[in-house]
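TA notes, week 10

Several of you asked for a full example with nothing omitted. So below is the full record: structure tokens for the whole chain, then the designed sequence directly under it. When grading your own attempts, check the secondary structure regions first.
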């Protein structure tokens, strides 16, 4: 599995961010080809001190090729272009292959 994570710093208008994100942006995300699952939260906390992030998003893809193809698809490009409509604080995007741990 390959994971895409987006970390959102505090926006200028948190209420607009929440409303737009849930009602407009996430429905666009759900149309991305190859997307296996996604999760998000507006309750981001730091283990120590103040968190630098307002919201977090994570998406699962089968592998890096599936993620890349999804992001380069028309739906993926639409999602990328839409970020400026709500994330006035910017966005940090990272991705990585998931390694399973053992207990």
């Amino acid at each position: 599995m390959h994971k895409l994570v987006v970390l959102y710093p505090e926006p200028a208008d948190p209420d607009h961010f929440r409303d737009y994100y849930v009602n407009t942006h996430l429905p666009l995300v759900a149309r991305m080809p190859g997307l296996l699952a996604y999760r998000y939260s507006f309750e981001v906390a730091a283990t120590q001190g103040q968190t630098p992030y307002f919201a977090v998003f994570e998406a699962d893809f089968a592998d890096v090729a599936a993620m890349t193809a999804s992001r380069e698809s028309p739906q993926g490009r639409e999602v990328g272009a839409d970020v400026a409509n709500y994330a006035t604080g910017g966005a940090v995007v990272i991705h990585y292959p998931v390694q399973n741990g053992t207990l």
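The chain is about 35% helix and 25% strand. Use that as a sanity check on your answer.
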